[in-house]
Amino acid sequence: MGSDNVRSLSFSIELNSRGHIKRVSLPDGSGDRVTIEGSLGELDGTELIEDIMLVVRGTNGVLRMNLTREELEKTLRKGRIESTRVSAP
């Protein structure tokens, strides 16, 4: 899967209602891509809990990710955050 020195990021998504889920795709094949789409709503806030957990709170739910302050700052310095525009079909 990768180097032993590379930490895998974990996440959780908690939504207030099933109605905020746009799409969940779980194909049968083991190598197939999984897609989870939904709406967190309007941004209520973000926080970094104990420098190890990034939390994004929206009016419809919460996204949590075990991203450290150091990893976040390193990524921002490298400019690895990209803006991608996707046109609707």
Chain-wise SSE layout:
Blueprint: E1 11-15, E2 21-25, E3 35-38, E4 43-49, E5 53-58, E6 61-65, H1 69-78
Description of the molecule:
The chain has 89 residues and is mainly β. It has one domain (11-78). The protein is 11% helix and 36% strand. The protein contains 1 helix and 6 strands, in the order ββββββα. The protein has one helix at 69-78, and strands at 11-15, 21-25, 35-38, 43-49, 53-58, 61-65. Strands 1-6-5-4 form a 4-stranded antiparallel beta sheet, with no helix packed on it. The chain is flat and about 35 Å long. The relative contact order is 0.19.
Labels describing this entry:
mainly beta
Short structural summary:
The chain has 89 residues and is mainly beta. It contains one helix and six strands. Helix content is 11%, strand content 36%.
Tally of distinct domains: 1
Strand order of the largest sheet: 1-6-5-4
The total count of helices amounts to 1
| Molecular shape | flat
Oligomer: single chain
Q: Roughly how many Å apart are the termini? A: 34 Å
Radius of gyration: 15 Å
Helical percent range?
10-25%
